[in-house]
Design a protein that fits this description.
Shape: elongated
Strand content: under 5%
Oligomer: single chain
CATH class: Mainly Alpha
Radius of gyration: 17 Å
Largest sheet: none
Number of strands: 0
CATH superfamily: Metal-sensitive repressor, helix protomer
Order of helices and strands: HHHH
CATH architecture: Up-down Bundle
Number of domains: 1
Length: about 90
């Protein structure tokens, strides 16, 4: 696993933990402020993971690493579309 993949995996694990906290707070009828604050943290963590995934794909695309591993090289238009889906 590459360093980029480890970073992405860690971000997603953090988001999962935050989401579990949101679910627990809702089930325990926690305060609206706490639930929304935690939910915002989950959203940011997922956004950052998504941007890291797209960023990694862009670097691999430009370096040709994805093609060398036998993967399909995304077009610039596909990368742009993926990026904009996160915006």
């Amino acid at each position: 696993m590459s360093d980029a993949q480890k970073l992405i995996s860690n971000r997603l694990r953090r988001a999962r933990g935050q989401l579990e906290a949101v679910i627990a707070a809702v089930e325990a009828e926690g305060s609206c402020r706490d639930v929304v604050t935690q939910l915002a943290a989950v959203s940011r963590a997922l956004d950052r993971a998504g941007f890291a995934i797209v960023s990694t794909a862009m670097r691999e695309c430009l370096s040709g690493a994805d093609t060398e591993r036998g993967g399909d090289q995304p077009t610039p238009e596909e990368l742009e579309k993926l990026f904009l889906m996160l915006a």
